[in-house]
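FAQ: What does the model actually see?

It sees only this:
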Amino acid sequence: MAVGARSGHDEPEKRPDRPAQPGAAMTDDSTGRPNGDQGSDQGSDQGPDRGTAPSGDTSADGTGDGHGEDGPGRGRDARKQRSFWRELPLLIGIALVLALLIKTFLVQAFSIPSDSMMNTLQRGDRVLVDKLTPWFGSEPERGEVVVFHDPGGWLEEGKTPEPNVLQKVLSFIGLMPSAEEKDLIKRVIAVGGDTVSCKEGGKVVLNGKELDETSYLYPGSLPCEPAFGPIKVPEGRIWVMGDNRQNSLDSRYHQELAGGGTVSNDEVVGRAVVIAWPVTRWATLPVPATFDQPGLSQALAVAPGAAGLAGALPLVLWRRKKLVARHTAE
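And it is asked to produce this:
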């Protein structure tokens, strides 16, 4: 019988729909073989290469049907799953190392524990501190909000809550502020070489210039209570004050300690650059404009005069030499 011919018995022209031939020949056992001569005719007409492969074997295009118990599709999925779980510890390890490097050299999170910097910073805020620029020789500048280690005697001796293991791990890698480190956060008012003072009821005077601190002082806070100075800040040190002056134990209250209330630049962890948490408090921490007023920096004020003198000296010597030569010729 030719391929595609009808079976041996006549059927009406309009037949009910049936599945295509491949569906009728999914298996080569007797349960899937049609009745009568049709089964033998199909077996002889299809030939050995026309039968359907057993479940799980690859199809004609070599991709596999993916339904077999040990088929290539299932094998690849299993291998991918095993590969993911095998690589997961490595991924976690890399993430932890990166977090530790970021905490050590780039950025670290700190929690605000008091009200000394209100309203700039509130209790419970999380700030991100730039630790990268100090590695390149950057030093604290006037107006910056900085985090620094306790120089000694600034913080009251008290027992801090013992953190659990998870808190210790998260704080070690920089994902959580440390509960054990004794750090403070204040605003830099004066740096090495500056002279700072404050009279009762007046304003802070820096290198002879009054500071307008209304943009960052806590509302109702008096700039100069108590009065202090004038104080010459040693080189390599800073004078710091809180924005909530009446609720901040800053440089004013530690003048009897070594350093006269100033903090060594080496104790500075870095500059607080942004409030990261809570999201409703997100904000940057720029340097207030009052620290950019002309003549505030003594170094900059002296530099133009020194440069002018250095430039004028050769001209004066050259003119004098000409005058001496003229008088000699006469």
